[in-house]
Amino acid sequence: MPPRPEAPRCLPGVMLNYPQRQFRFGALTVNGQLDRENPLYSAGFTLTVKATELKEDRSPSDATVMTTFTILLIDRNDNAPKFNSSEYRLHITELAQVGFALPLFIQAEDKDEGVNSMFQVFLTGNNSEYFTISPTAVQGRADIRMRVAVPLDFENIRSYSFSLFANESMSDHVGFARIFIELINENDNRPIFSKPLYNISLPENTPPGTSLLRILVCNTETEGVISVWTAGFDNHCHANTRAAIIGALMGLSLTWERGSKGGRQASREKSVLREICRGEGRQRRKRRSSGCREEKQAADTFQFGPSTDCRATQVKLYYNSFSSRDPSAATQQAACQCAATDGDAGTFGIVRYYFSDEPDQFSVDDETGWVILRAALDYELMRRFTLTILARDGGGEETTGRIRVNVLDVNDNAPLFQKEAYVGSLRENEQAVQPVARVRATDDDSPPNNFLTYTITSASAFLSYFSIVMVEGYAVISVTRPLDYEQVPKGMVYLTVMAKDGGNPALNSTVPVTVEVIDENDNPPEFSKPSYIVKIPENIIAGATVLLVNATDLDASREFGQASLIYSLEGSSQFRLNSRSGEITTTALLDRELKSEYILIVRAVDGGVGPQQKTGIATVNITILDINDNVPMWSEDPYHTNVVEMSPINTDVISVLAVDPDNGLNGTVRYSISPENPFYTISSSTGKIRTSGLTLDRESSNPRDAVLMRTIIISAVDRGTPPLHASASTTVFVNLLDLNDNDPTFLNLPFVAEVPEGLPIGSSVFKVQVEDPDEDKNGLITMALQMGMPRLDFVLNTSTGVLSSMAVLDREQIGQYHLRIIAFDAGKFPRTSTSTLTESVPRDHIVSRLSCSDNDAGLNAELSYFITGGNQDGKFSVGFRDGVVRTVVGLDRETQAAYTLVVEAIDNGPAGSRRTGTATVFVEVQDVNDNRPIFLQNSYETSILESVTQGTSILQVQATDADQGENGGVLYRILTGNSNSLFSIDRQSGLLTRGRRALDRETSSSHVLEVEAYNSDEGSMRSFVRVIIYVDDANDEAPVFTQQQYNRLGLRETAGVGTSVIVVRATDPDTGDGGAVAYALVTGSDRKFEVDVSTGLVTTVDYLDYETKTTYLMNVSVTDQAPPFHKGFCTVYVTLLNELDEAVAFLSAGYEVSLGENIATGTEVTQVQAQSADNLNQLTYRFDPDTSPSALALFKIDSVTGRITVTGLLDREKAICTP
Questions:
Q1: How distant, in Å, are the alpha carbons of 246, 399, 521, 607, 1114 from that of 615?
Q2: Checking CA distances to 793, which of 142, 521, 853, 894 falls within 20 to 30 Å?
Q3: Is the pLDDT of residue 967 over 90?
Q4: Residue 348 — pLDDT band, cuts 50, 70, 90?
């Protein structure tokens, strides 16, 4: 560093301060702005400082000291980079090579120091990528060199404008400059044909001699447009005329444009264009012309004629495009689509055309350039010609071009199928789209004539089910919907497929395609009826035809269809089924009386195998019709019954039964009483015997009646044709039960006894005689002395009837006694008789004894008695002398209850002076219980539901009694037929109701009650009536299975769908819908079984597999068909029988064994083992038939164990065996 002067220099912004007061420190401060980039400050400062000691008066002393300071300025980044110019402009040739350095002086500088002066330089803007700069990283200052990065082309981009940036790390420190580069056009394109290749297409049937195209040469210096610049002329210089000629020849449109004028720029462009027009390339390359010779004199190039006042004029020729489908227009369409002429004068501007190799099919006019067809073309032999054409000007310069003639195909070939016919097949019912055939045709024509489309033009059936699409060059015919073999005639569909090319007009050809539909076993056999009902007579002979069942299988093939059906029969050995015809015949004689109905199960199995087999099932109900081959047989002989005497009409006596096992009329028995019996009737259909209404009197004295009442002879005959009679009649012996229907009868009425007075006590005075014809106790009579008037002085022996005195009789005290004697039997309801005056007294019964006195004596006192009033009907008489009033006839209170008699007593005085006395006798007829209660109906019948509740009214019986008071009161009770207290009757009203216990129609469907009407428990007046109650069914019973569990053991696992498994049966004692049952599977079937709702037949509905499940335990319900729908349940247990239906697999996929040669025969090599899911231990082993004979000679395998042993000598070297 150079020494600094001792005295400091005054620099702008710098001040040295020496403070006087701070003598101890001498602080140095900056008192102005420092700038390191200022050249004055950039080197720093060197300062010399002197310190002088002060005296006490603070004046300087000579004691001094000096020191030197060096101060360096540290840079701060306070300057942005800058270019030496804000704009750079340059003209360069377009021929500048890549890497060429542009002659530009570009300098960039950052005045900061160190890292603060580092910056990046880069280009940005449109087309800046055509150039590169270096360096791009600068520190401080650098010269920037710009080079060409990619080839330049004036014809593409004529000028470039972009920006140059210098960037520091700080965003606000940026340097910027603009660069403008203009390209100078150079003659860098030699004249060429307007196209490198002329492509022309023409139909192959174009006639020879046709002009194809005209070859014209052009110069495509810029954008395919011929630019003709004329220099030195101020008018069109005949260019307009020349362009018109060219345009007329080429069929092109032409535009004319005048170039710009004036200015230095225009002058430069003019000179450049002039150079281009001359083709000189600035004298750096050989001048060239398009389709013309090289010019030696630049003045001759593109010179159209003399002219003055040279100005630049540009002529642009634009060529049109043509399109036409007319082959005859191909010559115009194929003309060169650019046009140019050589503007040179004389022979140098004349261009002639030649083929490099003369082709056979084409020629070219050397003057006009027209290419002409010489020979016929064939697209199928040669589709393209490539010709080389030479354009040579008068100076000998040549330009080479190529013509490619594409022979256009004419649609002269029809499509041709590869086969004369195609055959395809598919299985019926395929769900997915299934390809059935692939067809292919070829067409020798070219696109688009050989573009083929395929269509199905016709089909024998189901055209809409087929589609055709292209797949990998083939037309694939597919079925889009499932086909049903049974709906396809004969299982064949005949299609016609047409291939049509793309020509206009189009050509086509067709081919037949036969599609075979393969039958699947998808239809089970179905019988013509699900159930056959047949009736045959029981006397049908063995071997007779019963029925011909017929099943149809909609599968149409012989394998699965009708021809494959086999019939089988289950149910009875009495019938046989022809397995092919379906004819059911008898195997033995039938007897309807042994079995009247057969239910057979008929199966039809088609030709399917295993799970594919289909089964149809029908039932055959065979009813055996009866013939009249059995006579009625009495169930009993003879019959004995008891009947109460005096039973009313239609009283049931007994029902006789003759059984005829025949059916219908043949088994209907008619009954009759033979000989006739007036006491009884019989129902001809039911055999019920009833009383006829004629009185049954057990005590009857008529001997014939007594026999008829006790013996009934019944005969029976059926209603067959001819009718068969029972082998003998049967006799019904009737035991007439005694009814206490006879009152004790006094035999010696009237009781009048004359007894002398004065008899001792105990003397017998009279014997009363009584009889009762009833039996046993009903006829056992007991007598009693009921009353005596005026005094009871007698006693009566109750059994003998002997009346004895109990006192000494004195006529003067009591001259007459009136005694009442009663006689009664010992019946349950005793009957009595009395000797007193009652309404039932007999004739001449003393009613009253009148006593009239006359104080006269003699004849005057003799009296006579007469009834003078109240006896109009003459029922009474009076004793003429004794005045005793007697009955003349029996009295009936119910006819007249009281009488008033007027009795006169007349003395026997002289005539005319006889005197009379009158007495009135009131006779009241007292009621006795002499009338039975009478029911209003002879019998009662009604119907009730068995489900009625206790106390429900059933019917009301009514009886009337003509008696009076208690004697006329009627009470009711049930005598017989109510042993289980099923009914009760109101004692007063006769209303019959349901009793304590419920009714059950299934136990008894009817009840016959005997109801009695009576007056009192002791009274004998009683009547009886029969009440028949029919019990109607109510659905009160649940159906019951005949077994709680049904077992089917060993059902084959390969049993087909529809196989019968077992029949479950249930009964319901109810009638009607309440007794009808329906079956249903509840649980456990796993959708493998179903039960017929009406028959209870359990069948399979899916395929079984022992390996999946071996047993099934199903719950079956049965329900009756009336509310409340009672149910019953049972179980069905099914076990499966394992069968060989699973694949066999070895335990190992392969076995490898190493053996030593010469081992002994019989040595075990290995043991192979296989297993099957069936696990039946029935596997056998053998060698595969394809095993080589040499190996079979060496080894053998045990068919049971799978052990492989050596049977021959092994020789490794010979690989043969020695037996």
A1: 95, 92, 11, 10, 23
A2: 853
A3: no
A4: low
